[in-house]
Amino acid sequence: SVTLGCHLLRTKKFVFLATSSDLSDSLQKSRIRKEIMRLSLLRLARLNPAVKELRLHLCQSGEESQGVRDFVNKQYVQLKRDNPSLPILVRECSGVQPRLWVRYEMGKEKSVPLTKATAEDIAKHIETLGKGP
């Protein structure tokens, strides 16, 4: 019998068990990363009911807004599908610094700058701010 070495791939919230042959294949690594992102999106699906609106401000062409554009292209549809009654506004303006705004009950708002943030960073910000005021 052949024994394959096993490795644990850890992130902050997920653990995956993979064999040595799996790890040598870059396609498998890519699939694992995509699964981690998919599972991360499931966390986004459970935004606190106190969240009344999400707004993303970004520049259509600025380099500092690239992560926001990536987030909108890759994750907006799933986020909206999981929160159909939540208004998610994407505001584009030339030269604007990217920023995430979250409006809660009673008009309270919080914002986070997104300059040079990756799509994963933005998902983490939404998860954090989505827990409530």
From TrEMBL:
It comes from the Eukaryota. Residues 60-133 form the Ribosomal protein/NADH dehydrogenase domain. It is found in: Mitochondrion inner membrane. Keywords: Electron transport, Membrane, Mitochondrion, Mitochondrion inner membrane, Respiratory chain, Transport. InterPro entries: NADH_Ub_cplx-1_asu_su-2, Ribosomal_mL43/mS25/NADH_DH, Thioredoxin-like_sf. Gene3D superfamilies: Glutaredoxin (3.40.30.10). Coiled coil: none annotated. SUPFAM superfamilies: Thioredoxin-like. This is NADH dehydrogenase [ubiquinone] 1 alpha subcomplex subunit 2. It comes from Anopheles albimanus (New world malaria mosquito).
